[in-house]
Request: fold
Amino acid sequence: MTITHAIPWVSVAVVIAVAAAATGADPQLFFERGNKYFNDGQYERAVEEYTKALAITPLTDAYYNRGLPSYRRGQFDKAIEDFTRAISKESSNAEFYHNRALAYFRKGQYDMAIEDETTSISLSPKFAEAFHNRGVAYAKKEQYDKAIEDYNAALSLRPGYADALFSRGVALTRKASLDFKKACQSGMKLACENMKQLAD
Reply:
């Protein structure tokens, strides 16, 4: 489960030009520096630069980009706050929901992660990572059938997707283990033996 990249300057240039004309300050410099620091792994400095850009004008992409280094620093509440601000300004961006879902997941809020990945999938039905990550959240809730269904969807979109193959294997094994355990508890010796083999 990885977070996606920062949005480049080009996509926000028109909004910045208007803000620069109105305030006399050019947030482009701060935005671009934020991207550079983020790409260099200097997450605290990236947040500072995006914050400077946001002080001039409330850019959707600056909120989103500021959420990325917060996520990388383990500051999931801050990341969620910025991703939520970006979503409030542009609710049709699947990537915004996807990254907020990752932050919810890291906080152990699996239902919120599932909800955001479901929205992400509805906005971008070929988003294999969203299917995979929703499956991982279902697996954390021990809803293995739903998890396996999502891993299969991810694999149909991206055959050979290693993360989805691995996650599906884990879910199938855990599901089998639960079945063996129930059968063993019912007195079936063969199930108990298979359960031991899975544990080894």
User: Anything to note?
Assistant: The chain has two domains: 1-109, 126-200. Residues 70 and 79 are 5 Å apart (CA to CA). The domain at 1-109 is CATH 1.25.40.10 (Serine Threonine Protein Phosphatase 5, Tetratricopeptide repeat). The first helix runs from residue 13 to 23.
